Amino acid sequence: MNKKLTIASAILAASAAFAFDTWLGDAPQVETGIGNDTNTYGYWFSYGDDGDGGESKVVWPVELGNEYSATAMDPVVEHCGGICGTAALAKGSLTYNPFVGIGFNVVGEGASGDPVPGDASAWGGLCITYTSAAAPTLELGLGDVDATIGYANPAASLAKAASAAATKSIPWSGFTQPSWYKGATKMSGTDAAAQLVAVKFKIQAAAGNYDFNICAIGPYAGGTCPTSCNASIKAVRGASSAKAILTGRTLSFSGVKSAANAEIMNLQGQVVAKGDASSAMNLASLDAGVYMVRVAGKSVNFTNKIVLK
Description:
InterPro entries: Secre_tail. Keywords: Signal. The protein folds into two domains: 43-219, Jelly Rolls; 243-308, Immunoglobulin-like (Sandwich), CATH 2.60.40. It is built from five helices and 17 strands. By secondary structure, it is mainly beta. The longest helix is centred in the N-terminal third of the chain and has 11 residues, at 3-13. Helix content is 11%, strand content 35%. The strands form four sheets. The protein has a five-stranded antiparallel sheet with strand order 1-4-9-6-7. A five-stranded antiparallel sheet has the order 2-3-10-5-8.
């Protein structure tokens, strides 16, 4: 069967004019309004640069997973009132800046299990409320078409918002291909919206650790993205005097005033040591290298990078 006809049929089937309800960080699924009957649309996923030789990861504030999937982000949404974490960017063998991204499929999976496109033109564009210690981009994922355009997907630049939430509303015409793209196949934001597979929040910057929180996303047309993130989440994730202190191979914590759990993770996101943040941890058994420390409790939540020698 002609592939173009197959894609066109999938788009037509997924283009019923239902409302995209602005997601306010209060549910694990984004109600896109064009999801198919597999109910696999709107669930957040993460991706990184490992396929190109990078070593970047997202360090989550709580362990992922539910009864159906080990990577489900329900616990993150409940904890953050959004999708929050730390983009731990590590260049590896990349020749460009490392990146991670967080996104959701707008229609869901097709018969093959791959996400299918839908016509999101009626949204008019997107609005988003977020915080990010590095300037992110909001990118339109197009599935199989990504390779055709050299992965130069239409995107909109967002401002760095480290200390306070930022809100931005972007019409489809505001999504453009990056300036470095010199290919022959052009794709406007309006054209991409008519065959949209995924919405992606991407952080690409110099190697380092960058906190972020996506606390609302919705349509440009009639969207109601708030001007700030949930106040209670700010209290949990706000600036803290708590920190990790590494002395040789002994890790201790200061500023932790109530019960909290500490986890040590390698750059693959694997937990390699656990402990109580009220006590020092002996890391003598770990290999030399870079690790992330995550401390979470009722009144404290932070991540630090440490280097074991």
